[in-house]
Design goal:
By secondary structure, the protein is α/β, with parallel strands linked by helices. It contains twelve helices and eight strands. α4 packs across α5.
């Protein structure tokens, strides 16, 4: 049927893939970091304390002191393209564009900060994407990462008159494609070193221990990733958890404490990787590569290296193509 002349333009039907990562401030300065932390730390998925108790602490103490400290940390890793996390996620989306033909659009968004999930979903829908795969790039599932990214997307969908059909990417912590990509990436990086590490540490982002008891599979997913990677490489990986915040008990052992203790155990040469991150960011480039190095060397270590994330490497993109193709099956086949 031919639409009437005054009918709004109808874009061709498309499929969308929206890569989602955690978030970043818009600039490495205190005001931008304050806005970002205000959104991030107000998420009840992230801080599970009643708002009446938490918000006075957040607004009265944390947002008055922490932004300046964090802005300094961001300034140490900020790139010409902006935040490393944003730059890498953008590059991943660009590298994946065209992987499933001209009728599949690949875009990217951040849970906190910009580009916002709701803005990108609306833009994809307006461009004709009637089916969208939400792809939070967190290998290990946690309510504070995967779930809150999906929450934000679902909230945006709730405001749409005409919603697209939606699928979500499940965790891929034990996926053979993911483990294989990690193995290839780590072994390539190790082969380029001028020393042989005495220990290989897998550092994952920390979570309060109570999240484990409340039912998050995150701790188990992290342990399984490290075990499978160690088995694939034929060597043991030590697991540690970084980025502790506040007074609550967090998952252990802590990465900083582990690095400080290793030289006393006779471990003088260390390589550390972050298999819970799909892209390098503040937590890997500043917390591990800079502060982690300082901690280890000051404790008596002699050699330290940080092994980069998969990022937008050929190996990483091939892995993403594999796991995303699986979730697009039935859509792209019929397109």
């Amino acid at each position: 049927m031919t639409p009437p002349q005054d009918h709004p333009a109808i874009p061709p039907r498309r499929i969308g893939v929206l890569l989602i990562n955690l978030g970043t401030p818009d600039a490495p300065d205190a005001p931008a970091v304050r806005r970002y932390l205000g959104e991030f730390l107000s998420d009840p998925r992230v801080v599970e304390i009643p708002p009446l108790v938490w918000q006075p602490i957040l607004r009265g103490i944390i947002l008055r002191t922490r932004p300046k400290q964090s802005a300094h940390a961001y300034s140490q890793v900020w790139q010409e393209e902006g935040s490393p996390l944003a730059a890498v996620t953008k590059a991943q989306a660009a590298a994946l564009q065209g992987s499933w033909g001209p009728d599949v659009t690949v875009d990217w968004a951040m849970r906190y900060g910009n580009p916002a999930i709701g803005d990108r979903l609306r833009a994809m829908k307006e461009a004709g994407c009637e089916r969208i795969l939400l792809a939070p790039l967190y290998p290990q599932y946690c309510a504070a990462t995967t779930a809150t990214a999906n929450d934000k997307a679902f909230a945006a969908l709730a405001g749409m008159r005409w919603q697209p059909a939606v699928r979500t990417l499940p965790p891929y912590h034990d996926d053979p494609a993911y483990i294989g990509a990690l193995k290839q990436s780590v072994e390539t990086a190790l082969a380029e070193l001028d020393f042989t590490p005495d220990a290989l540490i897998a550092s994952f982002h920390g979570m309060p221990e109570r999240t484990l008891h409340l039912g998050d599979p995150y701790h188990c997913h992290c342990r399984k990733t490290a075990r499978l990677l160690g088995e694939a490489m034929g060597r043991e990986l030590r697991v540690a958890f970084q980025s502790r915040f506040g007074r609550a008990k967090w998952l252990e052992p802590a990465t900083d404490a582990t690095l400080a203790a290793l030289p006393g155990e006779g471990v003088r040469k260390v390589a550390i990787l972050a298999p819970g991150f799909s892209a390098d960011c503040l937590e890997t480039l500043e917390e591990l590569a800079i502060r982690g190095r300082e901690t280890f060397l000051e404790a008596g270590g002699t050699d330290f290296t940080y092994l980069p994330c998969l990022n937008a490497s050929d190996t990483g993109i091939a892995m993403l193509q594999t796991i995303l193709s699986r979730e697009l099956a039935g859509w792209t086949d019929a397109a």
